[in-house]
């Protein structure tokens, strides 16, 4: 087995200085699978900051991935604003009821206090613990759900979808108060010494049209990005699920530095079209390959992603296309990491073709 000769922090510094590195950065994006790795039930993360932090730390120490994230689900901000969240004993939380059931109650919504509301204080304590223990080796981040996606959780996805067509004014009011809560979480995360990333899954062109993205999501996403940069965030990392190619140029214009794309997006097209303006991360299939595939299939898919993305001039990070399913086999995560180490540095087409010709993976 090939071992790293750099920590993720050393690798990132060398890459930014144009110096040699030992391998490409890789982040499998494990999600709540960290519970399986560390021996917890997912529900423990809802009340025990030590358990959440310990699972993040143990996952990093097992795999050595280039980035850690204190994250459990998409509903942290919405819950703190009044939404009800279903929290299974050992699975990922889901939205049970939005914060309000009618737009006439929009003025009842309050901007969050991240140190008091919902599960956010638990996450903040976990962030600080992770940062203190491994922050010198690897980046530690909080995931901030974007203002547009969070607005859906405040009124409900079905109602919000209808409002896009029939009540634009109310959509903007929801996005405005949602944005203010996103900023509050950003402030609190930065106060713990960690970075922030943005998840905007409902800004996907699989969900809404590019026109609706530009009318409703983009203004608030741009303000959040500008706010993060004003607070010293050097690299804006954004993930949007599904189809995103119609809005790649919009994301460049609003200052995204690293774009994480889903497995249905065309990685080569993304690297070719905007890879000279922002780094690209992606996009191994989290379900068919990482969860249900063999080690050989994981290896081949990882090599394919490297071949399609490594020429992006601003940089390329091997990732799964979205957070991995909870029950993803640990050996498949290890295979992704080992494959990236096998490729090493520098990366060339010839090296990749030789490795891809190996049909048996032990």
Task: Give a quick summary of the entry.
The chain has helices at residues 8-16, 34-38, 49-63, 76-80, 120-134, 147-155, 157-166, 168-191, 210-230, 248-253, 267-274, 286-291, 295-309, 330-343, 349-356, and strands at 26-27, 68-70, 84-86, 94-97, 140-145, 195-199, 237-240, 258-261, 279-284, 316-320. The protein is α/β, with parallel strands linked by helices and 362 residues long. It has an eight-stranded parallel sheet.
Q: Label the CATH architecture.
A: Alpha-Beta Barrel
Number of strands: 10
Tally of separate helices: 15
What's the overall geometry?
globular
State Rg.
20 Å
The number of domains is 1
Q: Helix and strand string, N-terminal first? A: HEHHEHEEHEHHHEHEHEHEHHEHH
**Structural class from helices and strands?**
alpha/beta
The N- to C-terminal Cα distance equals 11 Å
Calculate the mean pLDDT score and round it: 97
Using the coordinates above, name the CATH class. Alpha Beta
- Provide the low-confidence segments as ranges: none
The CATH topology: TIM Barrel
Strand content: 5-15%
Give an overview in words.
The chain has 362 residues and is of the alpha/beta class. The radius of gyration is 20 Å and the shape is globular. The mean pLDDT is 97. It has a single domain (8-356), classed as Alpha-Beta Barrel (TIM Barrel), CATH 3.20.20. The protein has helices spanning 8-16, 34-38, 49-63, 76-80, 120-134, 147-155, 157-166, 168-191, 210-230, 248-253, 267-274, 286-291, 295-309, 330-343, 349-356, and strands spanning 26-27, 68-70, 84-86, 94-97, 140-145, 195-199, 237-240, 258-261, 279-284, 316-320. Helix 13 (295-309) runs antiparallel to helix 15. The strands form two sheets. It has an eight-stranded parallel β-sheet. Strands 3-4 form a two-stranded antiparallel sheet.
């Amino acid at each position: 087995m090939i071992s790293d000769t750099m920590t993720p922090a050393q690798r990132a510094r060398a890459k930014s200085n144009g110096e040699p590195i030992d391998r490409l950065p890789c982040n499998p994006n494990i999600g709540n699978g960290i519970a399986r790795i560390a021996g917890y039930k997912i529900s423990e993360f809802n009340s025990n900051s030590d358990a959440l932090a310990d699972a993040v730390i143990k996952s990093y120490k097992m795999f050595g991935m280039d980035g850690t994230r204190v994250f459990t689900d998409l509903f942290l901000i919405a819950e703190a604003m009044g939404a009800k969240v279903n929290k299974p004993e050992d699975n990922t939380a889901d939205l049970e009821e939005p914060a309000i059931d009618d737009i006439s109650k929009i003025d009842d919504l309050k901007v969050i206090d991240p140190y008091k509301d919902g599960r956010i204080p638990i996450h903040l304590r976990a962030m600080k613990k992770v940062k203190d223990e491994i922050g010198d080796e690897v980046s530690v981040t909080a995931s901030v759900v974007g203002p547009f996606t969070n607005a859906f959780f405040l009124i409900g996805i079905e109602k919000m979808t209808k409002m896009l067509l029939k009540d634009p004014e109310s959509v903007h009011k929801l996005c405005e108060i949602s944005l203010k809560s996103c900023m509050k979480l950003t402030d609190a995360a930065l106060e713990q010494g960690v970075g922030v990333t943005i998840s905007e899954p409902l800004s996907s062109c699989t969900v809404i049209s590019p026109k609706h993205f530009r009318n409703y999501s983009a203004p608030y996403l741009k303000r959040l990005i500008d706010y993060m940069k004003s607070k010293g965030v050097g690299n804006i990392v954004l993930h949007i699920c599904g189809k995103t190619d119609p809005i790649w140029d919009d994301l460049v214009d609003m200052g995204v530095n690293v774009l994480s794309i889903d497995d249905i997006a065309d990685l080569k097209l993304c690297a070719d079209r905007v890879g000279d303006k922002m780094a690209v991360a992606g996009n191994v299939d989290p379900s068919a390959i990482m969860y249900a595939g063999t080690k050989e299939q994981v290896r081949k898919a990882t090599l394919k992603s490297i071949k399609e993305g490594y020429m992006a001039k601003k940089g390329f990070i091997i990732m799964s296309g979205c957070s991995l399913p909870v029950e993803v086999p640990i050996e498949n995560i290890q295979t992704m990491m080992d494959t990236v180490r096998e490729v090493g540095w520098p990366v060339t087409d010839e090296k990749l073709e030789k490795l891809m010709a190996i049909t048996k993976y032990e």
